[in-house]
Protein 1
Amino acid sequence: MNIFKTERLSDHLIRITDIAQVCCYLVIGKERACLIDTCLGYGNLLECVRELTEKPVFAILTHGHYDHNGGAIQFDTVYMNVKELPVYKKHSQPQWREALKKQNKAIRKFQEEEIMPYAEPTGFLPIHDGQCFDLGGITIRMIEVPGHTPGIMCPLILEERTIIFGDACGVGVLLFDEFSSTVSEYKNSLGKLKTLEGEYDRIYRNHGTFWSPKELLDHVIECCDLILSGKDDHVPVMEHGYKLFSAHKLSEDGSRADGKEGNIKYSLEKAV
Ligand SMILES: [Zn+2]
C-alpha cells in the first residue's frame, strides 16, 4: 500500500508527504536523483521513489532527528554530517516512535512489519559545509546552519533557486535539548543564511505548510534579538516533554498571534 502523497513542485523537485504529515524532497537531475530526508519510516518510501524516477537515488539526512531519518535504511547510499551522529543515536531509540504513536491515530494503525528499522549510522557517508552534489544539470549545495542541532544542513538547489530550511529555520524553531545551540550561536548561523539570500526565491520546510515567504529569515533573526535583549513575549510552552518559552505569543493553532511567520521556542539556558 502506498501511503505517501506526492506533489510536483517543478520539473526537478517533488515533495513526498508521509502518513503523519512529515515530508521529504526528491530532487531529480539528468544523471541521478537525491532524496532529501526520509520521513518517519512508516511505509515503503523506496517503492514510492521508484514510481517517480528510475535513476540511481541516494539520500541526504539534513539532521539526526527521528522524523527525518526513519526511512534511511531503504537507501544504499546515505549522507549525513558527522556532527549529527550523537543526535541520530539518541533519536533512533524506540521511545520517539512510541511517543508519536500515543499522539497520532494514523500511526497506531501500522503493523510492526510496515515500520522500517533504523539504519546503522556506521554506513553513512559524511557531508561538510559547502559540499556540492551534481545530479546532472542540477546542483545541491549543503549549508551548515547550527542551531536546532549541531550539524543541521540546508540544501540549496542552485538551478531551482530553492532552499530547504527544514527544521533549521521556521515557524517554531526548537532550541531545546543538549544538542541545540544557544540563541547567540544560532543568530550567527542565520547571519550566514542571510548572505545567501540572493541565491534563492523559495523556502521549503518539512512540517506544517511546508513552505515560507522569504521574510521568514528576518523574522527569526528578529526573534534572536528579542530573546537576547529580554524583550520577547517569553510565553511558557511544552514541546516533546521540554519546558520551553515561545519568543512570540501564539494563536490556538500554534502560529504567531500577530500573523507573521518565524518563531523560536527555547529552553531558558539557551537564552544567551
Ligand atoms: Zn528536527
Protein 2
Amino acid sequence: MPTIVFVSPKGGAGKTTSALALATQIAQRAAVVVIDGDPNHPIKTWAEGGEVPQNMTIISDVTDKTIGDTIADAATKAPFVIVDLEGTAATIVAYAIAEADFVVVPTQGSQLDAEQASRAFGLIRAHERGIQKHKPDYKLPYAVLFTRTAAAIQSRDTRHIRKSFEAGGIPFFETELNERAAFKAMFSYRQPLETLPRDEVSNVDKAIENAEAFAREVISRIMQDAPQQQEKVAS
Ligand SMILES: Nc1ncnc2c1ncn2[C@@H]1O[C@H](COP(=O)(O)OP(=O)(O)OP(=O)(O)O)[C@@H](O)[C@H]1O
Ligand SMILES: [Mg+2]
C-alpha cells in the first residue's frame, strides 16, 4: 500500500512511460511492485533488459478476472504498488480502479486529448458512486498528469487546459512529464533513466529531475489526499 493506478482510456497518453518513470524513482526509496496489466506487456518487455532495480518486482499475465486479487495481494507485500493498463475502457480498468488508493490520469497537453481524459473521470466517478451507497463521504483521490509537454515553456494550449481544469475542480499535477528523448530511451535501451548512456541520450539528468519531481508530488498528494496512507508512506 498505497496502490497507484494509471488510467487513460485513450491510447498513447503516456501511461506506461510515466508509470515506469515513477516506479523507478520510487524504487530508490522503497520496494515497489509494478503490475503490467497491458496484454502487450510493455513493462515486462522493458524488464527483459535485465536492469530492473533490486527493489522492483514486475507482475504481468493478469486478466480482468485476476487483477483485483493480484493488486490486493501485492499491496500486502510491498509499500508501493503501481498498475499500468492498456488504453481502453475494458473491464480490467474498472477492476483495477476498485483497488486503487490513487489514480493518475496521464494526458497529452492538447484540448482533444484533455477531453478524452474525461472518460477516465467517468470511470472514477462510477466507482465512487458504488462505494458512496454505504460510505457517502468516499472519494477516490486522483490527478491528471500532463505528458509530453515542452520543457522550455508552457504552451498556450496547456495553460488553457490547466485553467479550465482549475475552474472545473479537476485536480492536476503541478509537475508535467516533459517530452524528453530519455523517457523514450528507457524502452529502447530497456534500462531505468539512471543507467542510460549519457553520451548517447541527451539530457538524461533533466529527465531524472523531472521524474523525481513527479514522484515527490505523487507521494505528497497521497499523504494529503489519503490520510490513512500517511503512516505507511512515511515509514
Ligand atoms: N515524456 C515523454 N517523452 C517522450 N516520449 C514520450 C513521453 N511519454 C510518452 N512518450 C512516447 O509516446 C508514446 C506513447 O507513450 P506510452 O506508451 O507511455 O503511452 P500509453 O498511454 O501507455 O499508451 P497505450 O495506451 O498504448 O498503452 C510512446 O512512443 C512513448 O515513447
Ligand atoms: Mg501503455
